[in-house]
Design a protein that fits this description.
The chain has 537 residues and is an alpha+beta fold. 47% of the residues lie in helices and 16% in strands. A hairpin with an 8-residue loop joins β9 and β10. The structure holds histidyl-adenosine monophosphate.
Amino acid sequence: MSDATAKKEERHKFQAIKGTRDLMPPETELWNRVEQTAHEIFATFGYGEIRLPVFEETDLFARSIGLNTDVVSKEMYTFVDRPLEDLEKLKEQIITRPIGLVNITNLGIFDGEVEHFLSEVKPLFDREEISRSPENAAALRSVHLAHQEMRRLLLDRALSRPELQDPLVAQIVEIKNEMRKVLLGNVLTMRPEATASVCRAYIEHNMQQLPQPVKLYYMGPMFRRERPQKGRYRQFYQIGAEILGGTDAPGIDAEVIEMLMTFFDKVGLQGATLYINSIGHNAENCRRGYVAKLKAALEKVKDKLGPDSQRRIDTNPLRVLDSKLESEQAIIATLPHIADHLCDECKTHYAEVKRQLQVRGVLYQENWRLVRGLDYYMRTTFEITAPGLGSQNAVCGGGRYDGLVELLGGTPTKGIGFAIGEDRLILSLQESGKGQVQQGRDIYVAWMGEKAHATAIRAAKDLRKVGFSVELPPLEQKFGKALSQADKLGAKFALILGDNEVSEGLWTLKTLSTGEQSKFSEPDLLEFLRQQKNVSS
Ligand code: HAM
């Protein structure tokens, strides 16, 4: 590296990756308040917190969310975990080694390499350090079988028996072909959502043996490679809840939504609108019948649709209803409505969900176009929008997903849940002026003199112990400097401790907003500050 390049690299300023951001104080205080409210409200409905890994096997998401969804087809952060470099090199050598049957040495080397490869891979496979997917297992088995067959033929002196030479070559080709398919690592994905993980955990921990239903909530970062804009990030945060097992009684759907609206109310979200819909039952004919009708109707207007919707007619016709394209709105309005095609059971279920929402005093609007972007939903779907967010105005999405646990290898299990986009919720709170957080310290300790320093340290300790936020300057400051620093930090009070205060045992407290100053004994001061805190909180 030349000096100039080295200098240039030195100057490179690291920045957060596009679509990710740092959340900083004082805003993080609002995040904490929102999260704390979720902990409290969800607990009152009997939910317990689950903390999930941030990455999982890619297949978990692909299978649950669906291959044709935007999330799986283009937005996942997927990587091969621990590609084993030495083994990768060996694999490459085996695949590219030229084998002429005349050259017995080469054949011997090839045999040794395959043997070595298989003996290295087996324990890794057993320890799940390389993918145990059915495809990987099959490829490894094929390499092993072809290798054994190759050896058998060699023992049969294939080289001196022309009739065995073609089968020998065929095994060598088979080894190379199958080895190409072997993945020397695990394919993992940074979670784009957490419903799939909760279902995986439900199965993995045999939660069907617990009293049903199991009510879980989570919060944390999710990852989707979307085009960043206001309210849309590549690392974003969700607060979600899932209820698994037990019945699919409409009362469950209504209560989940009630809990959500209670939470939004408690955090002070204003102007939120709840939209609901029922998209029918996948296993029953209602959804399949509707999708067929929708597809037929879409085919008729195909020319008038944009390329995305045209593509979706084949891959995922329901998603056309989600289109925000202005030019498609009038056409979509003419398409058949799912409500007219629900089977009796789904119709009754939906009607009862709505009735129970009314009983609970939850206001909603029906939106027949609300189909949601993930494949696992059935029956009830819902979304909540909030003001101040521009085009990314959905602060929460959710719905019922009765088949999902079974799809992931568990027993048939009912499920419903939601996820709140925390970034968007915070934005909306801030836009509506409900995002104010208490800023600044409670008390700035302005101390002067060595004697006062020891008293100041003790005072800070005692005040912090009872919950005040206290700034204790590490170095002595002039009085004026200390007060201006207290002001800059937004402190409410300055506790002034000089030699006089210490020897008199009377401490001076200055209220910075009014400039008022009073003297207190130590216990009186604590009492006074306590009262002030109670008044302001
Ligand atoms: P979702 O609709 O994909 O559903 O996401 C839920 C919420 O996460 C959205 O309404 C939005 O507020 C937020 N969100 C999604 N993508 C982004 C992004 N790129 N930037 C910022 N916020 C975003 C789910 O994830 C389902 N797992 C919800 C669920 C739980 N369904 C049943 N249980």
